[in-house]
Amino acid sequence: MRILNIFLFTSIILLSVHYRPVIASGHAGSEAIQSGNQEIPEKQILYNGRLWRNEYSQLKGDQFLFSQEYSPGKVTISDKLFDDIELRYDIYNDELITKTKQGITLQLNKEMVNAFTMEVNNKSYGFIKLNEDSLNNERGYVNVLYSNNLGLVVKYKKEILLLAVDKKFDAFFQYHRIYVMKSGKVYPIKKKNDVLKLFPENKQEIRDFIKSNKLAVTRKNPESFIPVIEFIDKLNR
Q1: Phi, psi at 189, each rounded to 5°
Q2: Cα–Cα distance for residue pair 234/237, rounded to 1 Å
Q3: How far is CA 25 from the centre of its chain?
Q4: pLDDT at residue 228 above 70?
Q5: Euclidean distance between the first and final Cα of the chain, in Å?
Q6: Which site in 49, 120, 142, 231 is 20 to 30 Å from 197, CA atoms measured?
Q7: What's the pLDDT score for residue 164?
Q8: Are 206 and 195 in contact (CB under 8 A)?
C-alpha cells in the first residue's frame, strides 16, 4: 500500500464526542431544515467547528500559510469529501479556517478533518493529518510532496518573534521541516547528505543522479528533494 494511504488511514480519528456544531443562520438555513433537505446533515459535518476570531491582529504579518486570503479547496471530514470550499490554513495553531456562505468564519473541527487541498496560484497543495506517533511526536497537517513506497512530506510552521520589528512590534516568522517516510518510519532531512545516510546502499547512484541532472537540492526548497526521492524509490522497487 502506498505511503499516503498508510498514513492517511492511520491518522483518521473517529469521534464519539464532537464540538458543538455551528450552523450558519439565515433564511436559507432555516428553510432547508424545515423542508428536510438532505444537504443539512452534510453541513453539520462540514460546519462542526468553532467560531473563529483573529487574536493576532496587532502582530506584523499573519499566521497563515500562503496568504491570509481564502483559497479554493477541498476537505475530507470523517471520510466525506467536500469540494468548492474556501480555506485558510493557520500554521501557527495548525488549524483549518473556512467561511460559510452566510459569511461566518469557522475553525473546522480538527479531530474530524482527515485531509484537505488548497489551490494557490494555479497550483494544488495536498495535506493529510498525521497522528502524534507518526511524526516524531509532532502531530498535525503535513504537505505531501511525494508518495509511493517512499514518502516525502513537509511541515510548515510559524513562530512569534518578540519585538522583531524596530524593537517595538512582535512578528510572525515562518519555517518548515522536511521528512522522508521509509519502511513505516519518519526521518527528518535538511540536506542531500541526510538522504545519502538514509540510503547508504544507493549512495553512489544518488550522487551520480544529482550530478548528471545538475540538481540543486536544498532545504530552502523542499520540492527540490522530490526527484531524488522518486529516483531512490524506483531503484529499490
Answers
A1: -135, 145
A2: 5
A3: 29
A4: yes
A5: 13
A6: 142
A7: 82
A8: yes
